Amino acid sequence: MPGGRRAERLAPYVLVAPAVLIIVVLRLWPLLLGVNFSFTGDGARNGIAVGLDNYRELLDDPLFRTALRNVGLLVLLLPVAVAIPGLLATFIYFRVPGHRLFRGVYFFPAVLSPVIVGAIFNLLLAFDGPANAVLGGLGIGPIDWLGDPDVAIFAVVGVHVWATFGMGLVVFLAGFATLDSALVDAARVDGASLAQTIWHVIVPGLSRTIQFVFVTTMIGLLTSMFGLLYIMTSGGPEGSTYLPEYYIWIQQGQMNRPALASAASTALFLIMLVVGLLQVSLLRRAGRED
User: Fold this and answer.
1) Where are the domains of the chain?
2) Residue 98: CA atoms inside 13 Å, Cβ hemisphere, count?
């Protein structure tokens, strides 16, 4: 019997050991190697310890500073990127007419390749394309969606949100399956408006789901836009659509500077970690206040 109890205590560790081993070997160990490599030099100084020289060079590079500013812009736009699938999932939950059709239509862009999405929107957002034709019909002058440095980043981010919000929609719908429908019915009986029901019933009830979608959406914005950037703007115009992942690819793939790319990767990881922890902290605090 003592042996049986010992085996029972060890069983959970044995079961999780393969997953932990995979994470350590394929994630943590390469991450540590990349961080260590970021403190070495490129070119003639390859393999030589250079301290913080790569990080100083990053801060002095205007393209990397532009990438950091764009990260700040993404953080500001993040609530919008989360609210869109959240609101659409709410309408589907309340079974608006055609909700089954909308569920499939909204998810469809998520299965398209970023290359295909980028090529399609390059045609739609061309200076003489359909989008400007519609604006012209409304008496609004044409917009250089992908050629204006002040507009291009918003265009690319908007396309990314359109192409990926289907995944967030699915997560929200799964969260609605755990929501106590009696609370929603009680709010209706009390005469609460849709906005009041969303704010006082749905948002607190889906707080954990919202936290998850916030973090995963942020990770997607920071690490999954390379395909769109490459196809739609290639980092232009004037480097205005640079993001850290695109900067990393340029340094590694075109400039042959793997150590500097490792430093940029480490900086991106730290940014994601800090922003993610701040988001979770703020959302938890808001949930407690509600």
Assistant:
1) 61-289
2) 5
Which segments of the chain have a pLDDT < 70? 1-4, 286-290
Collect contacts of 59-63 with beta carbons under 8 A, ≥24 apart.
Answer: 62/239, 63/235, 63/239, 63/242, 63/247, 63/250
User: Hey, is 104 helix, strand or coil?
Assistant: helix
8 A C-beta contact, residue 183 and residue 270 = no
Secondary structure class of 276 (helix, strand, coil): helix
CA 185 to chain centre: 34
Residue 253 · residue 184 · CB < 8 Å: no
Fold of 61-289: MetI-like fold (1.10.3720)
1-16: per-residue pLDDT in tens? 465 677 778 878 888 8
Residues 6+ apart with CB under 8 A from 237: 146, 147, 148, 149, 152
**Tens-place pLDDT, residues 163-182:** 999 999 999 999 998 888 88
Model pTM?
0.86
